[in-house]
Design brief:
Radius of gyration: 23 Å
Strand content: 25-35%
Helix content: 25-40%
Number of helices: 6
Length: about 250
């Protein structure tokens, strides 16, 4: 297990290929260059906000809003406590983050195996590109040896500069960002509070999950299938206490 302290974590201004100001604290980082590389960060949008054009990545992201409202796209607004999965190769944005927005994000290599380019390498590529062209409104523009003008997304340009190759995006496995609203999850709070008292660390379950579990148990009994020890302990109100004993 790896543990990080926000107060002492490294960080600084990032996303300078975009418009505005964004500061991040780097809580956990993986192995740069690995297909499984990752970064867990907490970001704070600075004065004047921070924005990007509509774009996509060759890695996965999960975002959790800590404070404020996050406009992932003009028609997709995430409130405090909401979570969303941003799959690789799926477009989102344009985003216009308001000043004061706080958000936790984990970015990691996706199923394509392309990995995740670390923030330091991306920022180094950003600086190198400034000698070749111009970043404006989140887009990198340059003119080649034949006088041809090119426009490419700023993050894509940084990736290609750092990696020395064109970005190849896998076929999207999803058609959009997957957003989850915690306010839509109904809980039996009295029952869950009672179970929390029996077993600290118990995870809340929805009514649907409990009904599904009970229906499965009844079908097993009806058809003569064995009921697992876990189900038996759960029925007798003993499972949680036994689990607590295992973690002493």
């Amino acid at each position: 297990m790896r543990i990080s302290d926000v107060a002492s974590a490294e960080g600084g201004a990032v996303g300078s290929m975009r418009v505005g100001k964004l500061d991040q604290k780097f809580l956990l980082q993986g192995e740069d260059g690995s297909p499984n590389n990752y970064l867990l960060n907490v970001g704070l949008t600075g004065s004047g906000g921070w924005g990007t054009p509509r774009h996509r990545h060759n890695f996965d992201q999960i975002r959790y809003v800590l404070k404020g409202k996050y406009p992932a796209s003009p028609h997709k607004i995430m409130g405090e406590g909401s979570v969303a999965y941003f799959p690789e190769s799926v477009h989102y944005g344009p985003q216009d983050r308001p000043e004061g927005l706080e958000m936790m994000v984990i970015q990691f290599g996706g199923a394509s195996g392309e990995g995740f380019l670390s923030t330091p390498r991306r920022e180094e590529a950003n600086e190198a590109l400034k000698a070749k062209g111009e970043f404006k409104d989140g887009i990198f523009t340059w003119i080649d040896d034949k006088g041809q003008k090119h426009n490419v997304d700023g993050a894509t340009a940084c990736y290609e500069e750092a990696m020395g190759k064109k970005m190849v995006l896998a076929k999207p496995r999803y058609d959009d960002v997957v957003m989850m609203d915690p306010d839509s999850v109904r809980l039996d709070r009295d029952r869950d509070v009672r179970r929390i008292q029996e077993a600290p660390g118990h995870v809340h379950r929805t009514r649907y999950q409990d009904r599904f579990r009970e229906g499965r148990r009844r079908r097993n009994v009806q058809h003569g299938h064995p009921v697992s020890d876990r189900s038996a302990f759960h029925e007798q109100g003993q499972y949680h206490r036994q689990r607590k004993d295992l973690w002493r």
